[in-house]
Write a structure and sequence with these properties.
The chain has helices at 11-20, 33-42, 62-71, 89-96, 110-127; strands at residues 3-7, 26-30, 48-54, 80-84, 103-105. By secondary structure, the chain is an alpha/beta fold. The chain has one domain: Response regulator (Rossmann fold), CATH 3.40.50. Helix 1 links the parallel strand 1 (3-7) and strand 2 (26-30). It is globular and about 35 Å long.
């Protein structure tokens, strides 16, 4: 089963995504950026179809994950969409300086999550053709 990484320090967010894709995808959760980087390093990238990444996490934030992906040329293998509660347009603009797919603002519905994940995953399919 293919996997989606959900890097967010909120168990509620992780559980929403897990519920939305139960039986379709394995959800790999990371409570901070360092754990997200470890998940990327320790899993077969062919099995990962995308990542939902929170920018504001304790210890290591989402921007450190974006920088890791950029430095290792991994955006084509691990497409990323941002999930954030931050309304600061400078933060959103900074995220778009990286090769991300889209931004989903909190709070959101299961339907919103499904749409952004489908969009993110479709990029993976295009890159692997």
């Amino acid at each position: 089963m293919k996997s989606i990484i959900v890097a967010d320090d909120s168990n509620i967010i992780v559980n929403i995504v897990r519920k939305a894709f139960e039986g379709q995808y394995n959800i790999l959760s990371a409570e901070n950026g360092q754990v997200a980087i470890d998940v990327i390093k320790n899993n077969n990238l062919d099995d990962i179809v995308g990542m939902l990444l929170d920018l504001n996490m304790p210890e290591v934030d989402g921007f450190a994950v974006l920088e890791y992906l950029k430095q290792n040329n991994l955006f084509s293998q691990v497409p990323v969409s941002i999930i954030t509660g931050d309304d600061d347009m400078d933060v959103i603009d900074k995220a778009f300086e990286y090769n991300i797919i889209d931004v989903l603002k909190k709070p959101f519905t299961i339907d919103n999550v499904k749409k952004i994940v489908e969009k993110t995953i479709s990029i993976t399919s295009i890159n692997n053709v």
